[in-house]
Amino acid sequence: MYGPYNHGWMFDGGMGMLFGGLWMILFLLIPLALLAVLLKYLFTRTRRNGSRPGEPARTTPLDVLKETYARGEISRDEFLQKRDDLLEK
Predict the structure, then answer these.
(1) What is the mean pLDDT of residues 32-48?
(2) Which helix (H) or strand (E) holds 84?
(3) Percent of the chain with pLDDT over 70
(4) CB contact at 8 A, 82 and 65
(5) pLDDT over threshold 60, residue 3
(6) 46 — alpha (psi -120 to 50), left (phi > 0) or beta?
(7) CA 46 from chain center: how many Å?
(8) How far apart are CA 20 and CA 67, in angstroms?
(9) What percent of the chain has pLDDT over 90?
């Protein structure tokens, strides 16, 4: 009735259907997962100074002190004393 090539479970939706469906899902999910990882890497990549893109650079107390001295708001002796105090911590 079915001829000499009747393999029953193999071609009638049995194991072939199960594994075929799993491979199809894997071939769909793997590229999507790789794309998600790539996008996460691109949008959360850190800069060399440790801050993220779009985030303002961190200023340290020493940077603030240097700016204050550069604007002429404190004298050289005051700057050196405060710098030494900051670097001792």
Answers:
(1) 83
(2) helix 76-88
(3) 63
(4) yes
(5) no
(6) beta
(7) 8
(8) 67
(9) 42
DSSP string, 23-50: HHHHHHHHHHHHHHHHHHHHHH---TTS
Determine the Cα–Cα distance for residues 83 and 77; give it in Å rounded to an integer: 10
Rounded distance between C-alpha atoms, residue 36 and residue 26, angstroms: 15
| Structure tokens that stand for 17 in this block | 């259907």
- Kindly report the pTM of this predicted structure: 0.39
Query: Are the CB atoms for 33 and 25 separated by under 8 Å?
Result: no
CA–CA distances in Å: residue 70 to residues 21, 38, 74, 79, 80: 69, 43, 9, 10, 13
Q: How many residues does the chain have?
A: 89
